[in-house]
Sequence to fold (227 residues):
Amino acid sequence: MDIDNIDWFDKLLTVSGTYLPTIRQEVKEMINEYDLKHYGTKPHKYVAYAVGSKLIKKAALKAGGVGGLTSLPGTLPLVGTVGTILVGSVVDLVVVLRMQIELCYALSVAYDVKMDEEELKAAALAIVGFSGSAAAAKAATAGMMRKTVDTLAADYIKIGLERAVSQVAEKVVPRLLSKWYRLIPMLGIPLGVSINVATTMMIGNSARKYFSTWLDDDILGRYDSEL
Fold:
């Protein structure tokens, strides 16, 4: 796979989108199970938070497993060559990015966010590219996060998702491929696991912060309609 050619990132976003119906069904089943367990007594914002936490934890554990497997060649004497390490990094990047994009989709379902597919893809792309940046650290509140992601997503739709993918990839890919810890014997696996877990949880928490504001809008809208 040619890292300089980021067509695969665009395809990754497209392929992930084809799983949206399945993702919606799985998350709704999780919501129904939670409601049944608590006899439907919990307000939806608590249900969304609980299901969202479960989704983030599940995705982080899967991403950690990928990090451990793709780091394995780097820990074996005479096996962990630079070539196998780079191949492992690319596999790690593609699989984990897909998990993170689909986690954003799943969290939108948990918070009952109504967006068309293009808007959702743009928002997920914005969240993945924005999380971990210096600007993200300054977006302390959910409202600031929502505003920034909305602005980025709107720009991505305006210029086209294909071009937007190139812009995000230029920021995300070099950062995620800079994993020379794989060259360190016996440290590749634990570091590969921990970094993938941390980045996935970071993106999951950013997505939850973003999508939770949509639920607040819905609650306020229903409140206003009752006045």
Summary: Residues 82 and 218 are 51 Å apart (CA to CA). The radius of gyration is 19 Å. Residues 7-226 form one domain.
